[in-house]
Write a structure and sequence with these properties.
The complex is a heterodimer. Chain A is mostly helical. Chain A has helices at about 5-20, 20-40, 75-110, 115-125, 130-140, 150-160, 165-175, 180-185, 190-205, 205-230, 240-245, 255-285. In chain A, helix 2 crosses helix 3 (about 75-110), helix 3 packs across helix 10 and helix 7 (about 165-175) packs across helix 9 (about 190-205). The model of chain B has no long low-confidence stretch (mean pLDDT about 85). The chains are: A mainly alpha, B mainly alpha. At the A-B interface, helix 4, helix 5, helix 10, helix 11 and helix 12 of A face helix 1, helix 6, helix 7, helix 10 and helix 11 of B.
Chain lengths: ~290, ~300
């Protein structure tokens, strides 16, 4: 870890990223997906909630690019509108996991001793429960009082996925705090808050950001999986996982309601993983 | 080695209590009215409610309920599902086919990952290497929830190469397509780790020595290098098991394989709290034990681990 050069590391990374085709490709894709989540009406004029049974399982046409599903809903419209809930859950749960991981990792790394022992054991325990298994127990029943379940699934994924970020942050902080410049700053009379936020944090955040970017992709996939199983979004929520679950039963009659949400989900996850990969390559000095 | 085993064992006991506590607390926090859930739409008489509350200790406080749960788990008594079936019996009935499926998945994943990993390490930067890197990226990006139904549609329903669904007495061929889908969830990481590890080992001194002795390149790569490169891959098995368990829920549900994951998926849909918690608790214990075994195996293979 050469976090010692972090000030210039971010600058270096940006210079690196600017010339990285994968970064631009995934960045543009992510931007497009975000736009789709914020203003879905830009992409389709059809209302995803208006379904006419007469259109049941009709193939693609000029009015409905991806055809209609079993309920006679426009597949393209539903897939586009599905972006919002998926991204909302993905972004918010990753934000929650990130904040938790940052706090736990920094506290464990900075204070060491008993605090570290307790927090590290807590992290171990959370890692001892496979994500999906805990999530199905947690969010299954929780979703009913909150109707569409966005809050429940976000909370579940956020509370269960902070461990990797915490571990990475902890070891980065431990490396950073023993560096000479921290000792120098301390001798110059910097207080603990200044030491942590001005010196240690900026120098240990790089690998944390990478973990978080990749987590974003996996959390979006986890939401779809939970929704598919019936332990995620429900009610009037539109979710790729729900679409896949429903379309699967009629896959032989109409494949496009199954295929398109699958493609959108895979492309979204791929975009975030590729973005994380590109950022990692840029931030990892060993790969330069 | 003895001290390492003891320390690792103590750690696992702590994690066991912590993890099962998390699972139980999650269930407890979400408990609504299990008796009404059991009865469905029908009204429940006060008498029945009183008996059931007594039997399932529903009016007890959290610590007391946790005590009963822990006692049941440690004595192997998982209680009854909401439908009244013995959870332990359901689990032992479902276990064999899931074991078969995941063993097949592990073999498929390891065969492909190790062969392709070694190959792309030898021809680093070549066409094969670049295309496998792209493949692993795709594998990482396509979740099982997408892969399973699409594979079933394409290979089982349209091309008819494999049966679309199976039974509890499924043969190896019946389980091949689900196993390949399941294997995809762990293959990418295995392949990448194998590749990195082989690349590092190819530069090692012992490889130069082996070559200098006049051994054939094939023998150097597939015997000397491979044996040393597989050590980090072994540790992945523990982590992979968690992925396989999660994946099995979807794969078994899609391909109608009546295993552990299938029952779990049905339990989730039916909001069968005791069933889900019972199954999940056992799976968590299996996960912890396998990880312990893998860690000990790793320590036995690589002495540096023991003396950290």
């Amino acid at each position: 870890m050469s976090d010692t050069r972090s000030r210039s590391l971010a600058g270096d990374a940006w210079t690196d990223l600017r010339h990285n085709k994968i970064f631009w490709a995934s960045g543009v894709l992510v931007a497009l997906i975000l736009l789709m989540a914020v203003v879905p009406s830009l992409f389709t004029s059809a209302d995803p909630a208006v379904c006419t049974l007469a259109n049941q399982n009709q193939g693609p046409s000029s009015t409905a690019w991806f055809g209609y599903d079993f309920q006679g809903c426009d597949v393209f419209a539903r897939t586009v509108y599905g972006t919002r809930d998926s991204l909302e859950v993905g972004l918010l749960s990753t934000l929650l996991a990130g904040v938790l991981g940052l706090i736990v990792g920094m506290a464990a790394g900075w204070f060491g001793g008993v605090v570290d022992a307790v927090l590290s054991r807590l992290t171990d325990i959370m890692l001892g429960v496979p994500l999906l298994l805990a999530a199905v127990v947690f969010s299954g029943r929780l979703s009913s009082p909150f109707e569409d379940g966005v809050f429940a699934v976000t909370l579940t994924l956020g509370l269960l996925t902070w461990t990797a970020a915490a571990r990475v942050m902890r070891s980065a902080v431990i490396t950073a705090k023993s560096q000479d410049y921290v000792a120098a700053a301390r001798m110059l009379g910097a207080g603990p808050a200044r030491l942590v936020f001005r010196h240690v944090l900026p120098n240990s955040i790089a690998s944390f950001i990478v973990v978080i970017t990749i987590l974003l992709g996996t959390n979006i996939a986890a939401e779809a999986t939970l929704s598919y199983l019936g332990a995620g979004l429900g009610g009037d929520a539109i979710s790729w996982g729900l679409q896949i679950a429903e379309a699967r039963n009629y896959a032989r009659i109409a494949a496009s309601p199954l295929v398109w949400p699958s493609v959108f989900l895979a492309v979204t996850v791929l975009a975030f993983i590729m973005l994380g990969d590109a950022i990692r390559d840029a931030f990892d000095p060993k790969l330069r | 080695m003895f001290r390492y085993i003891v320390r690792r064992l103590l750690q696992m006991i702590l994690t066991f209590f912590g993890a099962t506590f998390v699972v139980f607390a999650l269930m407890f926090a979400n408990q609504d009215d299990p008796i009404q859930a059991l009865a469905g739409e029908k009204p429940v008489s006060d008498n029945v409610r009183a008996v059931l509350t007594e039997r399932y200790h529903l009016d007890e406080s959290f610590p007391v309920q946790y005590w009963y749960y822990m006692k049941g788990l440690l004595t192997g008594d998982l209680g009854r599902s909401m439908a009244g079936r013995d959870i332990g019996e359901m689990l032992s009935g479902a276990w064999p086919v899931t074991l078969k499926l995941s063993a097949l998945a592990i073999v498929v994943a390891a065969l492909i990952a190790i062969t392709a990993g070694v190959w792309s390490a030898i021809r680093r930067g070549g066409f094969f290497d670049n295309s496998t890197l792209l493949m692993t990226l795709l594998l990482l990006a396509v979740p099982i929830v997408v892969l399973a139904p699409v594979a079933q549609l394409v290979f089982a329903m349209e091309l008819r190469w494999f049966p679309a669904t199976t039974t509890a007495r499924a043969g190896l061929y019946d389980l091949l397509l689900p196993a390949v889908v399941l294997a995809c969830s762990v293959m990418a990481t295995q392949l990448r780790v194998t590749r990195t590890s082989v690349v590092e080992n190819l530069r090692a001194d012992y490889v130069r020595t082996a070559r200098a002795k006049g051994l054939t390149p094939r023998r150097v790569t597939w015997v000397h290098v491979l044996r040393n490169s597989l050590i980090p891959v072994i540790t992945l098995i523990g982590v992979d098991l968690g992925m396989l368990m999660s994946g099995a829920i979807i794969v078994e549900e899609v391909f109608n394989i009546p295993g552990v994951g299938f029952n779990l998926a049905r339990g989730i849909r039916a909001e069968d709290g005791p069933l889900v918690v019972g199954f999940v608790s056992v799976l968590v214990v299996v996960f912890l034990v396998v990880n312990l075994v893998v860690d000990l195996l790793y320590a036995a293979l690589d002495p540096r681990i023991r003396y950290e």
